[in-house]
Design a protein that fits this description.
Elements (H helix, E strand, L loop, with lengths): L1 H9 L1 H4 L2 E4 L6 E6 L2 H14 L4 E6 L7 H10 L2 E3 L13
Parallel strand pairs: 2-3, 2-4
Antiparallel strand pairs: 1-3
Length: 94
């Protein structure tokens, strides 16, 4: 297990996949993963039409984590926003 883990981490740059939308001048960057990214892109496009400097970094892979890329984006942006789809504490009754 350790050998496989180290192999993945050694090749992280070729494994990590992301998509960037309007990050060049973004003051606020939304970082999203999975189905939440689709709603985030819709919101970013809408805010852009309103003149807001908002961009999206869509994480296609969650591990290995795109730590270096996110640090670079974070240095340029004033704020980072990470939306999450969460139902909170579930009260399922059967």
């Amino acid at each position: 297990m350790i050998r496989i883990n180290n192999k993945i981490l050694k090749h992280r740059q070729s494994i990590i996949q992301t998509e960037a939308f309007s990050l060049d001048d973004a003051e606020v960057v939304v970082i999203a993963y999975g189905f939440t990214a689709r709603s985030a892109l819709f919101a970013v496009e809408r805010l852009r039409k309103q003149g807001k400097k908002v961009g999206l970094l869509r994480l296609k892979t969650i591990w290995p984590f795109a730590e270096q890329l996110i640090r670079g984006v974070g240095k340029k942006a004033r704020k980072i926003f990470v939306p999450e789809m969460n139902r909170g504490k579930s009260q399922v009754r059967y």
